[in-house]
Every structure is written in C-alpha cells, then in structure tokens.
Amino acid sequence: MITRLLVANRAEIASRVFATCRRLGVSTVAVHSDADAALPYVGEADVAVRLPGSTPAETYLRVDLLLEAARASGADAVHPGYGFLSESADFARAVLGAGLTWVGPDPSSIEQMGSKIESKRLMEAAGVPVLRNHSVDDASDADLPLLVKASAGGGGRGMRVVRDLADLPGEVERARAEAQSAFGDGTVFVEPYVERGRHVEVQVVGHRDGVLVLGERDCSVQRRHQKVVEESPAPGLPDAVRGALHEAARAAAAAIDYRGAGTVEFLYDPATERFFFLEMNTRLQVEHPVTELVHGVDLVDLQLTVAEGGVPDPRAIGETYGHAVEVRLYAEDPAADYQPQSGPLSVLEVPGVDARFDLLNRPGVRLDAGFAGGSEVSTHYDAMLAKVIAWAPTREQAVRRLADTLARTRVHGVVTNRDLLVQVLRSPDFVAGDLSTAFLTDHPALAPAADPGAPVAAALALAEQARAARRVQGRIPVAWRSVVSQPQRTELDHAGEPVVVEWWGGRDGYTVEGCTVVAAGPTEVVLERDGLRSSYAVAVSGPSGREVVDVDGPGGHARLVRVPRFVDPAEQVAAGSLLAPMPGTVVSVAVEEGQAVVAGQPVLVLEAMKMQHTVSAPADGTLARITVQPGAQVAAGEVLAVVEGEVA
Predict the structure, then answer these.
(1) In whole angstroms, what is the distance from residue 313 CA to residue 310 CA?
(2) How would residue 181 be classed by pLDDT, with cut points 50, 70 and 90?
(3) What is the band of 153 on the pLDDT scale with cuts at 50, 70, 90?
(4) In the chain, fewer beta carbons within 10 Å around the N or the C end?
(5) What is the pLDDT of residue 446?
(6) Angstrom distance (rounded) from CA 629 to CA 632
(7) From the centroid of its chain, how far is CA 16?
(8) 271 backbone dihedrals φ, ψ, rounded to 5°
C-alpha cells in the first residue's frame, strides 16, 4: 500500500494528484525548480524538495535528482504526471529499481508505445487502422500535405505541416531539433496530414483482469497541433463509429497487456467515417477531467489502485451522465501566432467555481489551476495557466455555462487566450458540433475585435487615480481649466499599436467624443455608447508614467500601457532592429554579419517554453550586426540583430 507519493512534475498536474492523495489519506512530496519555488503546488504538499536550477534539463528531467528526492523524503511511490519523464521507460525502470512503486504502466508498455513509428507497426498487427509512413526520399507531391511528427513525446512539439515538398527536409530538421530539446529524442517520422479530420481519443484503464474503457473525448480544436478545447462524449459520432473506436482502443491496450490509465488517440474522418490510430499516451492526459465528470470517476484514484495491484471496483464507476467541456487557459498571444507569454501574473480570478481538482457533486464548473495571483509565469515550461471545465446535463448547457464563466474571468499581468476561447465556445459552428483540427484556421474571424471603450476606460481610470493621489487641491475637478483650449490626451499602447484618447474634465465630470461617461473611478468606469451602457473593471499597476492598465469589459480583456511623454534616448533602438519577442535561449543563427537578407528570411531561432520560434528579417537589406550567439539567454525586447539598407 502506498503511504507517501512523490509527484515528479510541477504546477497543475502536481496539484491535481495531491488532491486525490488528500482524499485517500496518502502523504505527498513535491519537487520544484528554483523558478517554481513559489507556485501553489509546492505549499500544498506535505514535503517539498528543491531541484537546483530552472531549466527542465537541470531539474524535472534529472532522474538522479528525482530518486534522491524520493529517498530523502521517505516516499515509497512516484507519480510522473504528464510531460517530462512521464513516458520514459528508463525512468520507470529506475523507479522500480530503487524499490519504489511506479504509478504507471510497465516499462515495456511505455517502450512499445513510446515510439510512434514502432507503435504504428504494433497496432497494424493488432488490426487497428493506421496511416502510412513516408520519408524525405519517397514522399511525392501527390502525398501532400504531410505532417512531420516527433516519435517521442506530445503536445505538438516536434510537429510541422508541410505543403511544399521542397520544404520537407528543412522542416524535418527543425522538428528534430525541437523534439530533441523537449523530449531528449530527436526521432521524427512523416505521415499524411488529414486536413479537416477530428481528433478523437479513448480513455482506458488496464488492470490485471482486463481493460476498462471509459468513453471518448473530442480534442479537435487545436492550435499549433496542441489541444485547446476538449469535451466528452465526442459530439455527433455515429453509434457504430463510437463502438468501433472503443473496441479498437481496448484491442490496442490488450495488445501490450497495458496496466494503468492511458489514452489511445485516433484521427477520425467524418467524410468517410473511417478512423486511424495516431498514438497511445501511456500516462494521464491533460484533458482527463472531462472523462472524470461524465463518468463520476477519479482517474488518479484508479491509477493508484492499479499501481497497488488492485482492480477498479465497477461499483465506484458511475454511468455516463451529461456532457463536460474543458478549455486550456494559456499565457499566449493568439494575435501573434500564439506566442507564449511570461512574467508576473497579478490576477487570476475565475468566478462561480464549484470545485477545484475534484469531482462535482452536481452540474457546475471545476477549476484545475497551477497558478494563482502573484505567481510568476516562467519561460522554461509550458504556458498553460489553468483548465476550466463545465459539466451539465446537455452539451448546449455545458458550453453556455463555460463561455459565461470565461467571459467573467479576470487574468492580468500576461496576455492570454481567454477572449479567443470565449469566441470559440460561442461560435455557431462550435455550438453545432461542426469540429475539425482546422477549426481555428477555418475561423480566423474568431479573433476578438478591439473594444473601443477599453482605452477610454483606461484613460479615465488613470486620471481618477492621479486625482486620488493628490495631496493638495483635492476638490478641484480633474483637468479643470478656467479657459479650455484643447482636450487632454492620454497616449496608450495596445498590443504594439498606438491609441490616443482625447477627453475633457470639469465640474460636470468627463466628456469623451462618441460616448457618455456615466461614472468614473480608479477601478471602474461606466460608459454609454449608442444607448448601451457598459461597465469596465480597471486595474492599474506599474511605475508612474508607464502604467499598465488591465481593462475587463463586454468586449473582453485589454492590456494597455501608458506611453511616456518623453522617451529616454537610451531606450530607443535603431530602425531594422530584430527584437526578442520573449525571453528565451538562442538555438541557432542562420546568417552572418554582412550577408544580404530578404524580408521574411529566417535570421535566428529562439527557444522558449519548450517551443522554437523563428525570428526573421523585417525587410530586404544587409545584416549589419548580430549581438547574440547560440546558447545566449535573452530578455524580451532585447536587440538580437540589425538589418540596414536594401539589397543592391
């Protein structure tokens, strides 16, 4: 019997496992890097062990440090979570070799499914449909589009879509580099890319007496091949297809005598009603809460039961009820190709939460969050902040409840995908269940439009904050003048675009062209436009003259930065400068000083949050200067290179 469990992971998944352990009376051990020392999960554990360093290679990928942490803390079992070493057969063997209980499948099962190349051969032999593999040498134009895919790991890393055969060799090399960095294994393969298929996966729990199948999930709404919205059951599946998927998953797990929780992923083509095996994740999935809610089962509890040699009690597994929908709230900028964000998270407030890391005892909202207000979002790890899940008797009710909860959620400090998620959930095609892996590509209009009231609210809140800070003449109206010559001007930056708000102040309050100011204060502004009254919640932070203003209103969230009246010459950069879009590490530099470049040509590659990002030349010219070398750590906004003039 397990008495003390170490979770060899971090943030949300560590908190999730700890929640089950508390219910079961199992003592817990957290491990943390220096970057994660202040995250909530560290304080939630009974014991915490520091892993010196911040990068994954220094910390969560160090088998020796993890085993030493288990020994020092008195842990008798290890749960790997997901990501990092969760699908490492070598880590599983090392845990077992140390005399500890491994909360996961047998290392041989991990090995068999760990290579997507070998697992496809195994599944084909078991009668499970698979897609054919290609190589750089045998692929032809007739095979396009193609998908380059990492053999190890997941989460969209080491994955590239190729639409031009000439791009295949380069994309293979880039995928190898990204996979090597994320998983320590640069093996990749190439398969046909089904443009508008659906990603449907089946939850299984293998045990000594057989394989338990716990329904399926649809995870088709993705960006960068990473899941964003997941739900269970999958909407609109013909009963025959649903049954065939379940049986194929059962056969896949049985073929390797699988033990523990796992997920068999399929690509489903609605046009032909055919499906193909993609991979098997030999671990708990990020999206497991939707299965837990519709089946009334704690999957971590089942993992521990199987790890202890037991068999899941069928009486503890409820009948399928209702529908659950989950979204992943990421620190990323959808308007900038989903670029990961980092920095201090000042506010994270999700209203109306009925449970955290737990089964709901009635339809409602569950929150699984790895961060809280005051946490620091690091550049070293995945950018997911939280998962928000709604469960209701029908899909329509669950979607509506989740959209409303997200619309009222406040996240300040970093740019997030919150507004995009609300747009997705409220889009007619999503509500109708018309889903595919190309959903976001097919719906570019889902990008939230700028709310014209947000800059006005920001400007007036700044004015009210300045009034409240006065030490003299506190009763004088804001911006009062005996003779008014011109409006006040507040200059703001919104996502890199300048915004100027002109306004007047006086005894009767504020006047802004195009709207009526009903009320204004440092934290709330009420505006009326075209007969519609809206309230804006405002939070101001940062130094005077460069304040950051977070505005939450009917149009979503806007993060605006006051532009100072006078710019420090030392902060100005030369025209043609290539700036680091985020903190990260320089992976490679593709050109040399003095070399001619054309607009859009890759100059260097940055790695941040386990993803690689190409920085390209902004215009035709000559690379006059490179200020960094491979391996260099750079800050956001740092000058990486300068392109001057035009190519002769």
Answers:
(1) 9
(2) low
(3) low
(4) C
(5) 84
(6) 6
(7) 17
(8) -65, -35
The position carrying tokens 């911006």 is 479
| Burial group, residue 566, by CB count within 10 angstroms (0-12, 13-18, 19+) | exposed
- Give residue for tokens 């392109």: 643
Which residues have a Cβ under 8 Å from the Cβ of 616 and sit 6 or more positions away?
599, 600, 601, 602, 603
**pLDDT confidence tier of residue 192, bands split at 50, 70 and 90:** confident
pLDDT tens digit sequence for 36-94: 999 999 999 999 999 999 999 999 999 999 999 999 999 999 999 999 999 999 999 99
* Mean pLDDT value of segment 363-370: 97
Q: Alpha-carbon torsion 223, 227, 228, 232, what sign?
A: positive
Q: Please give the model's pTM, rounded to 2 decimal places.
A: 0.86
Report the distance separating Cα 382 and Cα 379, nearest Å. Answer: 8
pLDDT at 354: 97
Model pLDDT, residue 588: 87
Are 560 and 497 in contact by the 8 Å Cβ rule? The answer is: no
Write a three-state SS string for 427-457: CHHHHCCCCCCCHHHHCHHHCCCCCCHHHHH
How crowded is the C-beta side of 379, counted as CA atoms within 13 Å?
A: 18
